[in-house]
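Notes taken during the Thursday session

The instructor put the following on the board and asked us to keep it in front of us for the whole hour. The protein is Epoxyqueuosine reductase. We were told not to look anything up and to reason only from what is written here. First, the residues (358 in total):
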Amino acid sequence: MPSQITTLSPAQLQQLRQKLNSWAADAGFQQVGVTGVDLQEHEDYLQSWLQQGYHGDMGYMADHGNMRSRPAELLPGTVRVISLRMDYLAPDISITEQLQDKSQAYISRYALGRDYHKLIRKRLTQLGKQLQSEVEDMGFRAFVDSAPVLERALANRSGLGWIGKNTMLINRHAGSYFFLGEILTDLPLPEDEPYLKDHCGRCTSCLEICPTQAFVGPHVLDARRCISYLTIELNGPIPPELREGMGNRIFGCDDCQIGCPWNRFSNSTGEADFSPRANLDKASLLELFAWDEATFLKNTEGMPIRRTGYENWLRNIAVALGNAPASLEISAALQQRRPQVSPLVQEHIDWALARQQQ
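Then, after some discussion, the predicted structure tokens were revealed:
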């Protein structure tokens, strides 16, 4: 007996595609696109990037062979990838105000609220089940930045935007402040046109604004110099030559997005879960440096910030305090904290104290 999928007509598949648009909007997504599984061009780029060692300590980027660029190896039978995007900027959140006040802590805007992985994965699974209610023997699997998937390449192939010189996916009508998620499926939905035009033009603002000069060139990021990598992915000491450039950024960095002219078209999110928690959009460095581990775990529960861990949290803040305007209060806080922390954090406190005393 033939499966239901093989008996669907082009008209029926098109109807399902239209329903998907409506369901995605109801689930809080701003856009949805569908593409096939051919990512050969992006696979070649990834291999070249890895061979240069630009992934640093992110060994998972090189794991799983070519599975990252071959969705059908991740979920056998996959013929389509559904890509969706969801805006994350909370209303009335300043992008640059905290960056300009070096006594304040800057946390990447995506990380101020609830961990997006759980929220978006739940919505994606809901969409998959809605499709299954129409096509019972359809198989699917949902992903949100948690499996070997080239999400920006897939979003580009599905028409959601182009990959900018800062390696971010950019949309002409929404900038780049949005999350991406994918549904891999064996349902042969009609494919959308890939986004082939690059609207960056001659602009190099994102490359020039990077505080640690992490871009080797257009579309090539050396993650080892990227502040997001240094504050989130890197375990161990932060290279001294990169610390000054980190400024007051203690978790992630938005500078290459702040410098992008297309983000004047970015939109606020309607998701209350993405609103700032624990006053982290207005917190001072000294306030956060005073948190003990129990307070850190309590105040960051269910948030992306948990990923960095308490030790690296203190390490990052110590660097930021070293970059803050010199004050007796900062020096006293650093000296008071020093006996209570690990040798790793102590080394960064010593660096900060030396900077404060210059």
